[in-house]
Amino acid sequence: MASKFNKYSRIITQDDSLPAAQAMLYAIGMDENDQKKAQVGIVSTGFQGNPCNMHLNDLATAVKKEVDVQEDLYGLIFHTIGVSDGITNGTTGMMYSLPSRELIADSIEAVVSAQFYDAVIPIVGCDKNMPGAMIALGRLNRPAILMYGGTVKKGKWKDQDLNIVSAFEAYGERMRGNISDFDYKGIIKHSIPGAGACGGMYTANSMAAAIECMGMSLPYSSSNPAVSPQKQSEATRMAKAILLVLEKDIKPRDIMTRSAFENAITLIMALGGSTNVVIHLIAMARAVGVPLNIDDFQNVSDRVPFLADLKPSGRFLMEDLHDIGGIPAVMKYLLNEGLLDGSCMTVTGKTVAENLEEVADLPQGQSIIRSVSQPLKKTGHLQILYGNLAEQGAVAKITGKEGELFTGPARVYEDEFSAIEGIQSEVQPGEVIVIRNSGPKGGPGMPEMLKPTGAVMGAGLGKDVALITDGRFSGGSHGFVVGHITPEAYEGGLIGVVQNGDVITIDITKNRIDVAIDATEIERRRKNWVRPEGKELIGVLKKFRNMVAPASEGCVTDK
Question: What is the reported pTM?
Answer without folding.
Answer: 0.96
